[in-house]
């Protein structure tokens, strides 16, 4: 079965980090692997959660988790503002992932767009 490739033709690159907009992710969130790297406090906070996202906080657990993933799959990395997730995207690209994208502006931008959020699972 072919791997999903939702964003490779339409991403924006900011300082060499591939980024996708909140609206792009919202439209395709059902078929996208979303990894949220915020803290548990942020995850449970006022900005909410993108439905279907998996929380894996930055640190040793995230590094271990990344190395368990299929490098051929597509991933969107989420944080509060897009800065921490950009560093995770960079790390994943350096580790051989080809379809990994930063959620441009993070959950702040997601909320500014008025997109639906859910409560943590």
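-> sequence recovered:
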């Amino acid at each position: 079965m072919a791997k999903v490739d939702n964003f490779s033709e339409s991403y924006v690159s900011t300082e060499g980090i591939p980024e996708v907009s909140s609206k792009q992710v919202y439209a395709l969130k059902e078929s996208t692997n979303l990894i949220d790297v915020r803290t548990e406090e942020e995850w449970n906070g006022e900005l909410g959660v993108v439905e279907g996202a998996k929380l894996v906080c930055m640190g040793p657990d995230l590094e271990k988790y990344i190395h368990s993933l299929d490098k051929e799959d597509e991933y969107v990395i989420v944080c509060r503002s897009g800065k921490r997730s950009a560093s995770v995207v960079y790390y994943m690209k350096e580790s051989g992932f080809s379809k990994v994208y930063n959620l441009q502006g993070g959950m702040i931008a997601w909320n500014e767009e008025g997109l639906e959020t859910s409560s943590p699972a």
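The mean pLDDT is 90.
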